[in-house]
Design a protein that fits this description.
mainly beta, 5-stranded antiparallel sheet, 4-stranded antiparallel sheet, 2 helices, about 15% helix, about 35% strand
């Protein structure tokens, strides 16, 4: 009896052990499932950050705009400028000298023939492209590019009539002075204002002190009629030794320019040296300070000019980046696809490898947000007529747009 009783107890203990083991295995499986789900959720959130704006001030509540990247063209070689025609066709340039057109954002790029020779070296080559405001009637396409002249090179603007896939009746309408033996700091973006005048930024070509010399075009913004002749009311037109076309000066290397959708003011940005990239509102006759004042320092660490960031007589930027992001391309968002971004300024970053969204109240910055951080070197950006935000990148060479994520 004792033996029988002990066997019953043993069987009971075995059953309890099996019961506990089953519960242990089930609990372990549940914990593993929860851990795996947590990892997937965390990974998904990390991935989604690549497709949403990154708030640089986390304490501030802002609506997050979700989007995805729609890659339209791959394999581009140093793309630089982008513009849309009234019918929705896309134009974009490659710095090596090629201009392409797409009949729609989903079509295959086709090369336009009849382009001028460009000096594709260093930072030079075929740069920006822009249709005339009355393109539907006159077919004029404007381009800027580096061109060889004598023993050096200049920044030029030319125009031709787009007929099919040919640029015809091509003419040079502006060449910067002087000729410089340098392959850096050519500028340049093209903007038309509401009166039909055309603006173009010219870099200092590495001769920084010349940006304070109004007798040449180095480190300036120029303004002209659509045929290239100087605007008669330019601010320096009454000064005998002033360079023709001169509108503003003291600018290092402007590679972004756009017109504000509401105020109709022209905004621009420029590269600083080590730090001191600037966003400025363009006004006639103003001196933007380079190289007398800067928020940056020279590449060897020495002060720029007197080492001051501001001084009476020079115009302060409305925003600056220190350290540098190497800004290139800029656009005010004017579409309706992303209503939270209406009239915000978007700036591409080469060294920073992101798109910076800046929200201003007048000329005061209220918020800056990074998008697509680490995605690529951003070269150009614009609002398409369909309301999407389009951009060009190099390394890799892509044409993409941001579209809402469903």
């Amino acid at each position: 009896m004792v033996s029988a009783s002990m066997n019953g107890t043993g069987r009971m203990k075995v059953k309890l052990k099996i019961h506990y083991m089953i519960h242990y295995i089930q609990l372990k499986s549940l914990l593993s499932t929860l851990l795996f789900s947590f990892v997937l959720l965390t990974f998904g959130l990390i991935r989604s950050c690549d497709k949403t704006e990154i708030n640089e001030n986390p304490s501030q509540e802002i609506p997050v705009t979700h989007y995805k990247i729609d890659t339209l063209v791959t394999g581009l070689s140093n793309p630089w400028g982008i513009a849309f025609l009234p019918d929705g066709s896309v134009l974009f340039t490659e710095r090596g000298g090629k201009l392409f057109m797409m009949s729609s954002p989903s079509s295959i790029p086709e090369e336009i023939i009849g382009m001028p020779a460009v000096a594709s070296s260093g930072q030079g080559g075929l740069l920006d492209v822009k249709p005339h405001p009355d393109f539907e009637n006159n077919r004029w396409i404007y381009i800027t590019y580096a061109a060889r002249e004598g023993n050096g090179s200049v920044t030029r603007m030319g125009r031709g009539k787009l007929v099919g896939l040919s640029l015809t009746s091509y003419e040079v309408i502006f060449s910067s002075i002087p000729v410089v033996s340098s392959s850096i700091h050519f500028g340049s973006r093209i903007v038309f204002d509401d009166e039909g005048y055309v603006y173009c930024g010219i870099g200092d070509r590495g001769r920084s002190n010349e940006a304070q010399n109004i007798s040449n075009h180095l480190g300036t913004v120029v303004r002209m009629k659509d045929d290239g002749s100087p605007a008669l009311d330019n601010p320096f037109s009454d000064i005998d030794n002033a360079a023709p076309h001169l509108y503003a000066f003291g600018i290092r290397n402007p590679q972004g320019m756009d017109i504000h959708p509401e105020t109709r003011e022209i905004w621009m940005h420029e590269h600083g040296p080590r730090g001191g990239d600037e966003v400025n509102v363009l006004k006639p006759g103003l001196n933007y300070g380079w190289p007398e004042v800067s928020h940056g320092v020279n590449y060897n660490g020495t002060p720029v000019g007197s080492g001051e960031s501001s001084r009476p007589g020079f115009t302060d930027p409305v925003h600056h980046w220190t350290p540098s992001i190497a800004p290139c391309g800029m656009a005010f968002y004017s579409g309706n696809i992303f209503p939270n971004w209406k009239n915000h300024l978007f700036v591409g970053a080469l060294a920073g490898q992101h798109i910076s969204r800046l929200e201003f109240n007048g000329n005061s910055l209220e918020e800056e947000t990074k998008h697509l951080n680490g995605f690529a070197r951003f070269r150009a950006i614009t609002t398409g007529p369909d309301g999407y935000l389009y951009f060009l990148t190099e390394s890799p060479g892509l044409l993409c747009r941001l579209v809402p994520e469903n």
